[in-house]
Design goal:
This is GNAT family N-acetyltransferase. One of its GO terms (molecular function) is acyltransferase activity, transferring groups other than amino-acyl groups. Keywords: Transferase. This protein is 32% helix and 36% strand. It is of the alpha+beta class. Strands 1-2-3-4-5-7-6 form a seven-stranded mixed beta sheet, sandwiched between helices.
Length: 154
């Protein structure tokens, strides 16, 4: 497996489309998925490859001078549980440290929603050293409570 930054905008979008469309349980709202695919060109983009085939990615966005937001990310379903997400997260941790960030943040569906897929997502983040920072019922919409999770890098 190879992890690297991707610079070409079109390639970022192709990888994001490939991965997000493989994850309808997480990215089943077409309008939102299209917005993610279009927007990844604005931000640094880290991808995982298996024999030069893209298998996962993180699109990361500067929230402020101290906080890096994991804007959108995913790993092809067939690679879940194989360490791809952990390797991507390690790369992002190093990238954040190298660029002077002190914290990582991610927005996800709150635990109180009891969504099976997002409970797996939360477990992944908790295993990566994130903590629940703030929960709000209005960030996404009233039916999808948002959990902001944070990780200190130092």
């Amino acid at each position: 497996m190879d992890i690297r930054l991707v610079e070409r905008d079109r390639y970022k979008q192709e990888i994001a489309a490939l991965v997000l469309r493989d994850l309808p349980e997480w990215f089943g709202i077409e309008e939102s998925t299209k917005e993610y695919i279009e927007t990844v060109i604005k931000y640094p983009f880290v991808a995982a490859f298996d024999h030069n085939l893209p298998i996962g990615f993180y699109s990361i966005r500067k929230e402020n001078d101290k906080v890096l937001d994991m804007y959108v990310l995913g790993v092809l379903k067939q690679y879940h549980g194989t360490g791809v997400g952990t390797r991507l997260q390690e790369f992002v941790n190093q990238y954040a440290n190298d660029h002077g960030y002190e914290y990582l943040m991610v927005l996800t569906l709150a635990e109180k929603k009891q969504n099976k897929e997002y409970l797996m997502t939360r477990k992944f983040y908790l295993n990566q050293g994130f903590i629940d920072f703030y929960q709000n019922d209005d960030i996404f919409d009233s039916q999808n409570p948002c959990q902001i999770m944070m990780k200190a890098l130092k």
